Amino acid sequence: MNVSTGAGRLRSRASLATLALAIALISGPSYAAPSEPDPQGDQSIENIRGELDDLYREAEVATEAYNTADEKAAKQEKRLTSLREGLARTESRVDDLHDLAGAAARTQYRGGNLAATGIELLLGDHPDQALNEASQARQALRSLVNVSETQQTARMELSRQTDTAAKQLRELKSSRADKAEAKQKIEGKIAEAERIEAGLEKEQALKLAQLEKEEAQAAKSRWTGPDAGGGTSTGTGSGGGGAKASGAAAQAVGFAMAQIGKPYVWGAVGPSSYDCSGLTSAAWAAAGHPIPRTSQTQWQGVTRVTLASAQPGDLIIYYSDATHVGMYIGGGQIVHAPRPGRTVTTAPAAEMPILGVVRPGV
Question: Where is the composition biased (Gly residues) (predicted)?
Fold first, then answer.
């Protein structure tokens, strides 16, 4: 074997080996690249449920802010319309008084100077005529003074109404801005929650539904109000101490129960959809006892009662910020509009942290 030829073959093989190694380093390892991480893959069902609850909770808080701003804006628009009507009437009155002041001034001018008229009374040939003219002049002067004072008062009122209307307009714009901000937040939170739910695998969705059932069952044992441990009542069923709903309360419960199956829509007050306070306010309005629109104003403005004395038709207010409400129907159950993606339904009254109970119609 030729030594030079062998050495050349060795160098050739070494070059090929070096080239192969370089290709391998450039290409990277031969195994497949990992796929995009599953957003729910490393989370337990309990964590997913907690995340969804937090998102829908934040959406509900924003819904209360939206409803508050919406109600405030509606009142401000009504007030502003009334102010503008009053402003127009006052402006017309000022114009009329201006014309009247001109007429009074012209009448005084025609009546002449009061001092000169007095001399005519003493020295003139026609004292009766002079007396009549003096009387007209004095009356015209008094009218002019009265008109001037009334005109000044009207102008002050016009200025006050103008300032009030301007302030009301600023407040209306602020309420509309608050409403738009809350709307944007609601839609963002709901979209995020829906994205998570849409990304669940079938098995995860089944586990989540099962977890919700188990938590609802556990909530029944936490109920410490009337009928604790009792069965679910109907719309006019038992309440505190087995009492039956009657009168307006029975009508309110009947209305709310008739809405079961209708979708939750934030900001809605019926008749085809509701949010939580939209349902309770519509129910009591149908019973002839209108109550405030939002759960927070229902908590603030409706008579409070103890949990132990809760009766069908009473409203149970939830969370420390009073941002959810349901109607007690007896048997430790409520009827309520729960959250986006759900429909009006019944649920254990202790399913959420209870703030207190209010009783409309008293």
Answer: 227-244
Instruction: Tell me how far the alpha carbon of residue 209 is from its chain's centroid.
Output: 30
> Residue 312, by phi and psi: left (phi above 0), alpha (psi -120 to 50) or beta?
beta
pLDDT over 50 at 238, yes or no = no
In the three-class reduction of DSSP (H, G, I as helix; E, B as strand; rest coil), residue 335 is classed as strand
Any idea which residues carry the catalytic annotation?
Answer: 276, 324, 336
* Short-list 361, 327, 334, 331, CA closest to 349: 334
**Could you give the CA distance from residue 80 to residue 86 in angstroms, rounded to a whole number?**
10
Q: What is the pLDDT of residues 148-202, one digit of tens each?
A: 777 778 778 888 888 888 888 898 899 999 999 999 999 999 999 999 999 999 9
**Cα–Cα distance between 39 and 34 in angstroms, integer?**
14
Cα–Cα distance, 270 to 338 (Å, whole number): 15
DSSP run (H or E) holding 217: helix 202-222
44 vs 97, residue with greater confidence:
44
Whether the Cβ atoms of residue 335 and residue 256 lie closer than 8 Å to each other: yes
CA distance 12 to 65: 78
3-state secondary structure of 320: coil
What is the value of pTM for the model shown?
0.67
The tokens of 157 are what?
């009122």
Q: Which residues pair with 356 in a beta bridge?
A: 317
H or E element that contains 122: helix 114-123
Return the amino acid letter for 104.
A
Contact 277, 344 (CB under 8 A): no
If DSSP codes are grouped into helix, strand and coil, which group holds residue 94? helix
Question: Is the link from the previous residue into 360 a cis peptide, with omega within 30 of 0?
Answer: no
Q: Please say whether the beta carbons of 74 and 277 come within 8 A.
A: no
Structure tokens given for 172: 């209306």
Domains of the chain plus CATH, in order, are 45-198 (1.10.287), 225-358 (3.90.1720.10)
